[in-house]
Every structure is written in C-alpha cells, then in structure tokens.
Amino acid sequence: MLQDGWEPRPFRQFLLKVHSRCNLACDYCYVYTLADQSWRSRPKVMAPELIETAAVRITEHAKRHQVDSVRLILHGGEPLLVGHAYLRGAVETIRSQAGPGLQVDAAVQTNGVLLDDDALRCFADLDVKVGVSLDGSARGNDRNRRFADGRSSYDPVAKALHLLMSPAFEHLYSGLLCTIDLANHPVETYEALLEFRPPMIDFLLPHGTWESPPPGRSADPKKTPYGDWLVAVFDRWYGSSGDTVVRLFEEIIQMLMGGRSASESVGLTPTSLVVIETDGTIEQTDALKVVRQGAPITGLNIVDHPFDLALEHPGMVARQLGWEALSDTCKSCRFGRVCGAGLYPHRYRPGTGFRNPSVYCYDLYRLIGHIHSRLVRDLRRSSV
C-alpha cells in the first residue's frame, strides 16, 4: 500500500494512561473485567521521565506531519488517582516541549469521585476540559458503577458535577459518558443525565464481540434491544434537541445528510488516536482489550520508537482504511457508509478477525433507519 502511494493519517489524539488502576469496580469495565489483563503487570503510575519522552515524541510526530494542534487525553484507570499536581506537571511538560507552534488541547476523562475544588482550579489554570462518566440516576448508575466494597458511587460524582456546573468551572465541562444498561429505562436515564446540564452526552454500547456478545444482545434480526433503547432516547431528544448534544445522534444525522463522522463509533473517518500506557508502550484503541489478551499491542514503545512506526502497524492501518476495511455484508448495506460497521473491536469474530459487521449490526440498523425515517418525514413536511 505504501509503495502504491497510500499515506496514513497522522495521529492527532494522544491518550496518556497516567494511572493504571481505578478506585471504582464497574462491572463492564474493558480494562479490568474483560479478556485483556495486561494492567496487572504495568506500573501504577507513569514515571515522570516517560512523560518527558512522550512530550518529545508527540512534538516530533506533529512537526514531521506539519500538524498545528493535537489533543492530549489524560486517562486511566482513574487519572485523578495521581493527584492534580502530577497532572499539572504532565500538561505543562508536554506544552513546553511543543512550543508556540503546536497547540496542545488537554482533557481529562474521570469517574468524578476525586474531582474537587482544588483539582478544578488546577484544570482551570491550564484550560483542561473535563469529561465525567455517569450512567443515569442513582439507581441506574449503581447497577454497575460502584466501589469495590459495593458502595454507591453516585453521591460523590453528583457532588463533583454540581461543582463542575458552577460559574467558576462550567467552561471546563465537556460532557457525560453513559454506558447503556438495558435494565435502565432509556428516557429516565437521559433525563437523569440532563439534570447535570451536560453540554454533550455520549451514549456508549457495552463492549462485546461475536465471540463474547454483550449482555442482552439478540442474534434475531427482529429483536434489537439496544437499537430500541436508543430509539426511545432519540425520540425524546429529537423534539427538544436544544437540551444538549447527543453525540451519537448528531453524528448519524450529519452522515445521513452527506457529512463525515468525528467519532469512531460510527462512520468511516480514519482513526487519529494512539494510546500510551503507563510503561511507555504504544497501543491501539483501549476497546480492543475486549477481544483477547494483547489485542491492542503494537510491539512499540515511546523510548525506542517514533509514533510513525505505529502508523504502519496493521491494526492502525485497518482503522484508517474506512470503506476498504468493511466486510462485503457491510458494503452491500444501505446504511454501510453511515454505520461503518460500528466500533472496530465490536466486529471481531474468531477466524475472520475484524472483517465482519458489528456485533450490534441489527441494533445500529434499527437506530439509523429510524433516524433516517424521521429526517425524511420532516424534510417532506418542510417542503410542502
């Protein structure tokens, strides 16, 4: 492919695993409860010298590809376990190395338990955007998101969110991540999230593959529990979309209208994300941990290898090929270019690898078909 003139897209998102452990024990967590258990052998905290190396490698990659801005995502585990002073040092180190010619936008994705006034003042000083994970109401959230001893996580997260919503910090608030649990009522979940005035909500399908299907997923094309759940939320959201941005819905609408996706959950936009683990290893998307032990590995690390070598890894290439990486089934589907076979790890099946439809194929078709019908109906009405 390289000999034929194909060129990979440079990385623009660098996910830094600053801490490999977590203070919650979520039932569905892809890091700790699924196939890959590599976290057990990794350092808890990324060493400061590796932060410095990451800064050099990020800057090197951006300059080589004439990229003028990148996104730094502070992640874990739970990133706030390292303390806000450590996070300040990481952001300042990377921005200092980048210099004035490279803009480094920073964000932290947290479960919110340790998000307090001191942490938010640090993030405000650095303009670090804050995303928080929450699965709805107290009852809905605590089905899966609890402390290891079974205690509820809802109250400390709600307290943190009210602080984040305050005038001093609301400009940092990037949104909420919510993993779908079919046991939670869809509209009740959506409205519980709205109580925290999120600028954006991202609904996530639980990770699964054809080998290890997600809970409640049906092999019967007439049964689409996740699609039905999302349709119920869409219908509540669609008539009052000023409430907030629901990323999945807006991405689908954008593509149905001829645009491009900015998410890897749907569509064909090439990936621009790379993961740096606490030991400095360079990995593919975290979600591949659902597939098998070692699925995300590239065999590379930031001490010995530039990010350009990761761009040539077969897994990275496959996630940049778009249409050409899809199965024949997806290519023949009326919504193939919109769905894009869903999230890459969800396509995995032993024997055929990732060249399959998503394990959520019927659910995604149900959702996209419903949104398409609503748009067509409204467009026809507006033209009368």
Short description, anyone?
It contains 13 helices and ten strands. It is α/β, with parallel strands linked by helices.
Summarize this structure as a short list of keywords or feature phrases:
alpha/beta, 13 helices, 34% helix, globular
Helical run tally: 13
Elements, N to C (H/E): EHEHEHEHHEHEHEHEEEHHHHH
User: What spatial form do the alpha-carbon principal axes imply?
Assistant: globular
Low-pLDDT parts are: none
Q: Radius of gyration in whole Å, from Cα?
A: 20 Å
What is the percent of helical residues? 25-40%
Mean pLDDT: 94
Describe this structure in words.
This protein is of the alpha/beta class and 384 residues long. It has helices at residues 48-64, 84-98, 117-126, 138-141, 154-164, 186-194, 225-238, 247-256, 307-311, 314-318, 328-331, 336-339, 361-383, and strands at 13-17, 69-75, 103-110, 128-133, 173-179, 200-204, 245-246, 273-276, 281-283, 297-301. The protein has a 10-stranded mixed sheet with strand order 7-6-5-4-3-2-1-8-9-10. Strand 1 (13-17), helix 1 and strand 2 form a beta-alpha-beta unit. Helix 7 runs parallel beside helix 13 and helix 8 (247-256) packs across helix 13. It is globular, with a radius of gyration of 20 Å. The termini are far apart.
